[in-house]
Specification:
Largest sheet: 4 strands, antiparallel
Helix content: 55-70%
Number of helices: 14
Number of strands: 4
Low-confidence stretches: 11-16
Strand content: 5-15%
Shape: elongated
Structural class: alpha+beta
Number of domains: 3
């Protein structure tokens, strides 16, 4: 028994150095892998950090690691910050990251701020991010503010209509097209009406102006009266745009709506007159039939009246025969007066 214990202790003493060696090797491998991962992460961050450093954009390693942990596209954020710094803007990494996490378009906001700065337009980061988060294209708005855009009225792509149709007081239809030059109003972008409202208001003004003209010739002779009348109404109130000009591109003569309406009214009057005449004819026929019925009824009473006259002595035999002769003579005359029937 004692010899067996000594043998077991000697075996453990021989295997202990091998187990320690395995643990040391495993720890070294894990440490190497950890250092390799850290090195690779460092290399990926270092490239972006170096690019930002050379571009004078202040981006710290801690900010890059924080964005990586928050699953933010740190390369996208750094690129936009570099773009802003190179354009002379002062934007912090935190501001850009915050807008990114809010679901905004960081590139659009950055480019809009750069364009506004170059054009001396007062646009702050807070306003730009608010407009972007509201669903408006802030970059397009700044471009429109710098370079006004032309909106066709009506817009065939949105309304499926080529012209605005209106009728002058003389009944002649006019078909007009207009081009509205607008400039974006940055301060009214949030909550301001869109292009569709501008098109609708201008179209309404065109219809009102044409409809108030005495004749269509007045509009054809002076088309700019439409644009002047529309501009005086201040149609850009409450919209995200400022109307600079309204130019009438084309005015064509359409149908004679007044004549068509008069013809339709005459047709309706004729139908009503026919209906009234038919009504009167029907009433006359009914009245005639009623009178005929009364005649037949009264003729049926004649024999009774004659009998009563015989009984009372008011009618004699000679009087009766004289009346029969007169009746027969009248029937003969009626027969002679009738034209002969044509043979078929």
């Amino acid at each position: 028994m004692h010899e067996s214990l000594n043998l077991f202790n000697s075996i453990l003493a021989q295997e202990a150095p091998d187990l320690s060696r395995v643990i040391i090797i495993g720890a070294a491998v894990l440490l190497g892998l950890f250092i390799l991962v850290i090195f690779l992460i460092f290399i990926s961050f270092f490239k972006i950090w170096l690019r930002a450093k050379l571009s004078r954009a202040d981006v710290k390693f801690s900010e890059l690691i924080g964005m990586w942990l928050r699953k933010v596209n740190y390369g996208y954020i750094v690129d936009n910050k570099i773009r802003a710094v190179q354009a002379g803007l002062t934007l912090t990494t935190r501001d850009l990251e915050s807008h990114y996490l809010s679901g905004g378009n960081v590139a659009n906001v950055t480019l809009a701020l750069i364009a506004a700065n170059r054009a001396n337009i007062d646009l702050t980061l807070k306003t730009a991010t608010a407009i972007d988060l509201a669903g408006r294209n802030i970059r397009e708005a700044v471009e429109t503010s710098v370079n006004p855009k032309v909106i066709p009225c009506p817009d065939p792509k949105k309304t499926n209509r080529e012209t605005v149709d209106a009728v002058a007081q003389d009944g002649i239809q006019l078909k007009a097209k207009a081009r509205v030059t607008v400039r974006a109003n940055i301060k009214r972008l949030v909550g301001g009406a869109t292009e569709e409202t501008i098109i609708a208001r201008v179209g309404e003004g065109m219809v009102t102006t044409i409809g108030s003209s005495n004749t269509y010739k007045e509009v054809l002779e002076n088309p700019d009266r439409i644009s002047k009348a529309v501009l005086e109404k201040g149609l850009d109130a409450g919209t995200a745009f400022e109307i600079l000009s309204i130019d009438i591109a084309d005015v064509d003569v359409g149908e004679n709506v007044g004549a068509a309406l008069q013809a339709a009214q005459a047709e309706a009057d004729m139908r009503r007159a026919k209906a009234e005449a038919e009504k009167r004819r029907a009433m006359a026929v009914a009245y005639e039939q009623e009178m005929r019925a009364q005649v037949v009824e009264n003729e049926a009473k004649i024999p009774l009246a004659m009998a009563e006259a015989f009984r009372s002595g008011n009618l004699g035999i000679m009087d009766y025969y004289r009346m029969k002769n007169i009746t027969a003579d009248t029937d003969m005359r009626n027969t002679i007066a009738k034209p002969p029937k044509k043979k078929e």
